[in-house]
Amino acid sequence: MSAAKPTIRDVAHVAGGPVTTVPHALTEVETARGKAETRDRVHAAAAELGYSPNKLASGLRRQRSQTLGLLSDQIATTPYAGQIILGAQETAAALGWVLMLYSTGADAQLEQREILALQEHRVDGVLYATMYHHHVELPVELERFPLVLVDCFTTGAAVPAVVPDEFHAGYEATRELLDHGHRRIGFVTNIDDVPATTGRLNGYRKALEHAGIAFDDRLVAADASETLGGYRTALRLLTLGERPTAIFAYNDRMAMGVYRAAYELGIAIPRDLSVVGVDNQQILADGLYPGLTTMALPHYEMGAWGVETLVRLINAQPVARSLEPHRLHCPIVRRQSVAAPGGATRTGSHPLPPKPP
Amino acid sequence: MSAAKPTIRDVAHVAGGPVTTVPHALTEVETARGKAETRDRVHAAAAELGYSPNKLASGLRRQRSQTLGLLSDQIATTPYAGQIILGAQETAAALGWVLMLYSTGADAQLEQREILALQEHRVDGVLYATMYHHHVELPVELERFPLVLVDCFTTGAAVPAVVPDEFHAGYEATRELLDHGHRRIGFVTNIDDVPATTGRLNGYRKALEHAGIAFDDRLVAADASETLGGYRTALRLLTLGERPTAIFAYNDRMAMGVYRAAYELGIAIPRDLSVVGVDNQQILADGLYPGLTTMALPHYEMGAWGVETLVRLINAQPVARSLEPHRLHCPIVRRQSVAAPGGATRTGSHPLPPKPP
Prior knowledge:
The structure is a homodimer of 357-residue chains. Chain A is an alpha/beta fold and 357 residues long. Chain A is built from twelve helices and twelve strands. Helix content of chain A is 39%, strand content 18%. In chain A, the strands form two sheets. The first copy, chain A, has a six-stranded parallel β-sheet with strand order 2-1-3-4-5-11, with helices on both faces. A six-stranded mixed β-sheet of chain A has the order 7-6-8-9-10-12, sandwiched between helices. In chain A, strand 9 (274-279), helix 11 (282-285) and strand 10 (293-296) form a beta-alpha-beta unit. In chain A, helix 1 (8-15) packs across helix 3 (36-49), helix 5 packs parallel to helix 12 and helix 9 (227-238) crosses helix 10 (252-264). The model of chain A is unreliable at 1-5, 19-34, 53-63 and 344-357 (pLDDT under 50). Chains A and B meet through helix 4, helix 5, strand 2, helix 6 and helix 9 of A and helix 4, helix 5, strand 2, helix 6 and helix 9 of B.
């Protein structure tokens, strides 16, 4: 065998057929034109020679680069952002596509430059992803591409979009506490006017309503959506005359602050207080003691849904179009922070783990 | 102006020159061949028309796709992994390159498939990144590419590689505690035999030695590198007859366990115990009370260094080649967890923040 790079002629020679069968046999979109037996022979010959078709050349021929662009505001500002990328990347790879990364740094000028780059590289489609669920104004240039929005949505255009189901996250978190017998459930929440704030509050209220419990606004406290905000709001709720036996926290960071407030007040979790968060940030939810029960945000799944839908768009397959974004379920991840009021579980009576020998 | 897509002829027409000047003027690698004035005229015309050169076609001509492949084991297993990607992506964009993502899922078969995809897409070079600092066996197929290793290294081949400077992370963390007057400093560390374990221990020992303090192995305790491991090892050190006044923790998760142990034992941080971690995982380091002083791992910087070096390799510019990986500094990020022994700072005398009004 020659040491030079194998060519299409070498593959045809080894496969024992004309040169023109090789691209047909090696290009999945055209396999219908080659008989299965020829295809297998060509594949075997290509594998034997280490021949790989030039994707640049075939991309040019079909005006396809087989690439998807992921354009996002900042791909790594949140610790779970990587999960959107991972879901998108693994799904793209499984479908035979490759993902190219573009980042705007949440800067309008950079965004324009990156959109130009998307055009230059002739990506076949674009995922536009943001790092938390919010409304976006789309740059008009993006409308030229097959386009799917991930963790954001726009108004007025029927662009496929996928977001977390914030309402059901709030509903099911509250439901989990109701199911354990809690009737007096606090909600420590965010001050920002974003869909997660209103969605989770509405879910909390609806779950109470379905359980026949009147909404009590003294049990809802809002602050910055981080540890200190969770700490301050929890101190307020836990020093009420009749304090809640359970707290639903807007996110895991606020839940971390609830833990600190409870610890300082001598209130044991889950014996004297049950807690549910949102995010399933493993580093927090597993690191806290006891482990935090929390609603997982479907970042991986949103990335995967986005790529699947984008590839359907590119292939002109049917895609449900709606002015409403597609809402993905936020599953509960149970750890040890929920028990019946008064502490019915074994864990509840042992606020600290046994000391090591 | 015509509504049709502008072509190279339109740009030449508006710029008032022959068609052949356009690619020279728009392609940075060939600008030496175009006069500056022509170049500016062509750029202005291209901008006016919204013309973008077809990167696929020019990539084919030069056998360049202007793309870098980032092949990693699992891009999102750690919360800070995204920072390697962000550093690589932003640096690539600044240099006029685009980053394509490939993930092996830490699976040998998937890795082979992804390497084939790298070949098919004719990426110009490959960053091979792992999600924690360790030794790797390189797949031989990767040696065909310009190649740089990020957060890992190999033996026997002079492949440029970049890793965190574990020794100095340990040295400077210990130095920070020594500088505040501590003499009895514990180290809670990892049981895994990885470069971070040995590097940080050696740095800790060297800093003690430079301060004239004898190493005392009773002050070093190893366990799993997570919260529970930090909790168990800290309980051991903090219940010694003569307990340490400061603890250096292998990572922020172990430091979180140190906080819990201290809290349970009624030991206030930083008044009665100073703590330094490693990682600068913001969600933990900011979320803990008091905020955790910690050594930042240079994930963003490693991604940036990797791309810069890779582009130099591709452009046949000089690159320092060595059998030793390039070690990047881990800067200290100071928060409130370090004070003089006995609590010399104001924070030290107020273990809890004032209650909100």
